[in-house]
Specification:
This protein has 92 residues and is α+β, with helices and mostly antiparallel strands. It has helices spanning 22-29, 61-64, 69-73; strands at 2-6, 12-16, 20-21, 46-51, 76-78, 83-84, 88-91. Bound molecules: FE2/S2 (inorganic) cluster.
Amino acid sequence: MIRITFLNSDGKVVEAPPNSNLLRVSLKEKGGIPFKCGGGLCGTCKCRIEQGMAHTDAVKPKERRHLSDAQLAEGYRMACQTFVNGDIAVSW
Ligand code: FES
């Protein structure tokens, strides 16, 4: 299992299987990441991987519509498009 820390929810820590979708884990475990569409369209789930960026999968084309290269370099992702394969800490 991997550990995901939801920094804006008082640092709540939850466990999930490797390669979990970040927004799905947030919904299931009440992590608190904001969302609307769940499908990579609205941009509401924009978040920042504060620790463990190397444990996330490749940035999707849909994310590039909402995030600049500079934001991506700073660790910003869209939670509904991001899969996690190791421990991370996320803020939003
Ligand atoms: S929830 Fe709409 S883009 Fe992720």
